[in-house]
């Protein structure tokens, strides 16, 4: 009987040792691995909240539910030139600094009104060529692109038909018009 108890306790300890690394995981890491740019978990959360401010959740899912911020990060990482990637990351950091200077807290902790105030200020300065403006304009464009090409949008909001009309596969050439 003592042998069974020992085996049970060893199995319990072994299982616990396997789970410890998962419990001690660094939460400040981004949820996806990016090759060319370095984004932390807090910055990724800020991007998600920015996307949600641009396309908020109503009766339909918002940008955060669709994962538009992940699409934006992947596009910047995979498709932008190295100089543009650096400009984007510098703009991301400048965006967070501006938010902290203006509201004394991070963008994720701001109220919806404060977020909208900040975005309206950035919209008013569209012709500015700073890293901050570059970040905001590209993030907004990519979030909208991600949302309007998502499965939800194309199947529920703007129903997409691949080919309009009917398809006839086997038609003799002289009858086709």
The pLDDT mean sits at: 81
Categorize the overall geometry. Answer: flat
Let me know the largest β-sheet. none
DSSP helical segment count: 8
First and last CA, distance: 86 Å
Q: Which secondary-structure class do the elements indicate? A: mainly alpha
Written account of the structure:
This protein is mainly alpha-helical and about 180 residues long. It has one domain (about 25-155). Helix content is about 65%, strand content about 0%. It contains 8 helices and no strands. The termini are far apart.
Please render the helix and strand layout as text.
Layout: H1 2-23, H2 41-54, H3 63-66, H4 68-79, H5 82-103, H6 112-124, H7 131-148, H8 151-157
Helix pairs in contact: 2-7, 4-7, 5-7
State the main characteristics:
177 residues; mainly alpha; flat
Question: What is shown here, in short?
Answer:
With 177 residues, the chain is mostly helical. It has helices spanning 2-23, 41-54, 63-66, 68-79, 82-103, 112-124, 131-148, 151-157.
